[in-house]
Amino acid sequence: MNGSDWPSPSTNLSMVEEHIKKIVAATGVDVPRLVTGGSSLATLPLPLAAFVSLTITYKLDKASERFLNLAGPALENLAASCPWPSMAIVAALWTQKVKRWSDFLVFSASRTVFHHNNDAVEQLLRSCFTATLGMSSSSVCCCGGVASLLGHGFGSHCSGGLSPVAPGILYLRIFRCIKDCSILAEDILSLLMLSVKDIAETTVPRQRSDKLKKSKYGMRHGQVSLAAAMTQVKVAASLGATLVWLSGGTALVQSLIQEMLPSWFLSVQNLDQGGASGGMVYKLCGHALAYFAVYSGMFAWGIDPVPVSRRRERVMRSHFEFLASALDGKISLGCDLSLWRAYVSGFLGLVVECTPCWVQEVDLKVLRRLSNGLRQWSEDKLAVALLRRAGPEAMDAAAELILGSE
């Protein structure tokens, strides 16, 4: 692309770069440099260059409109799958031809920042959590909630050109291009725990630790009640479950519940270094994981007695067996005991109240073991409720449990 046989994109590359930086500014992701200086020329892979040369020569009239409507998405997808900064170069070329398409082309180019950079995707996910919880320092995402997560789309309706885009909008445009969803789920789980840790730190009494008044996101939070903290925990868990379900569907949810969560509990997790929060971090993290698991299962398989997939029964049987084996002492856990107790009580409590049909898909012997374990924790009401949800077959076991507790 020397500017004679081809139009040169160099005149617009700087503008495209600045607009991309502005769009992703709310995510905190660093945009790779487009303009390197020197004598190096912007280049495109040969298949993409051929496609661009074919489409860019068409006149913008009604006769060619049908062709461009067909070729446009194909060109965008091809450029997005090519190495960086192919899509940015295409945007710079087409912006010279059709200036009114500039916003759309630049926004499409901004998405490709995340296609080949796992660190950028992780940073985008982090921004989704901080925006939703109101912990972001960005003016676009400082209010919290869905409004901060999704914002108001994108465009140049504000002064100064393109406005920053909320992280949720960017993620909705790039998640289909993420290749390794298992790593993505691990990142979501890790970010959920970090978010809950930050929430827990704001509940610590003021006199206990002045250092915790300022969160790691640079914002100063007032002291909030435990009820308010639990509300934030539920929001974080629902966001995490939504991201997992959206990114990988039922297969990723199955992997999360059957493999990732058990592995996480078996490993050592140091979430409260120094014990500054008095164990609050572990308790809230346990509840967050309970909501995270139940929400993910509800998104994937629903709560109806007749499951949309037989996979739900296999996953629930496997997870309940893991819980029972850990309560029996057959499995040695690496996580904190208060976290584990909060998770088990929270998970089973949510299942009993919200998804009772899941209980009926679990073997009665496993439910007996779970009830005995809950009884050792003085969770008699939950133990009885769990057996009651199992149906008439479990009434004998429930009666024995009630009589044994008297």
UniProtKB/TrEMBL annotation:
Name of the protein in question: Uncharacterized protein
The entry's keywords: Membrane, Transmembrane, Transmembrane helix
Ranges that cross the membrane: 41-60, 235-257, 288-308
GO CC term, one of those recorded: mediator complex
Family annotation (InterPro entries): MED33A/B
Tree of life domain: Eukaryota
Gene Ontology annotations of biological process type: regulation of phenylpropanoid metabolic process
Lineage: Eukaryota, Viridiplantae, Streptophyta, Embryophyta, Tracheophyta
Organism: Arundo donax (Giant reed)
Keyword Chaperone carried by entry: no
